[in-house]
Design brief:
Blueprint (H helix, E strand, L loop, with lengths): L6 H24 L5 H12 L7 H8 L3 H13 L3 E4 L9 E4 L1 H5 L1 H16 L4 H17 L5
Helix pairs in contact: 1-6, 2-4, 3-4
């Protein structure tokens, strides 16, 4: 029988378990003491390296606060994976890009996140995965700050 705790509680518990799982996999796989959010940010930068990526874009992507994005980027910068540069025409803006050190671990990240997703989706068929995606999107829309 399914647990009867509120759905919000179950989603938060699941999200926390996935976060811990990702943090552990990324740290072990890359060996650079990266957090899951740092790993996901690196993945976004890998897949958008020919585009202008800003703090604002990262905030919009995750719905994260400015403080969270700022803290994540400072950690990545301190570890030598990214650099942030102000364009000449707008000193308020920071363009984020991978350093050579950050680019070196791209293949490792791809493999780690493929494994993470395979484990998360393990035991689910394609229809269940699509249904879950749809339901999660509707829940995010229900609690969106844009309402």
């Amino acid at each position: 029988m399914a647990e009867t705790k509120p759905l919000g509680y179950q989603i938060r518990l699941t999200a926390n378990q996935i976060k811990c799982y990702i943090d552990q996999k990324v740290t072990v796989g890359v060996g650079s003491n990266l957090t899951g959010i740092e790993g996901m940010t690196m993945g976004f930068l890998f897949h958008h390296k020919n585009e202008e990526v800003t703090c604002k874009r990262l905030m919009e992507r995750d719905g994260a606060s400015k403080a969270t994005v700022s803290q994540t980027l400072k950690g990545l910068e301190k570890k030598g994976f990214i650099e942030m540069v102000h364009p000449k025409d707008d000193k308020r803006k920071k363009i984020i890009s991978l350093t050579p050190k950050g680019q070196e671990i791209e293949r490792e990240f791809d493999e780690i996140f493929k494994e993470i997703n395979q484990n998360i989706e393990s035991g689910l068929d394609e229809k269940e995965i699509e249904t879950l995606r749809s339901l999660l999107m509707r829940i995010r829309e229900n609690v969106s700050m844009e309402k």
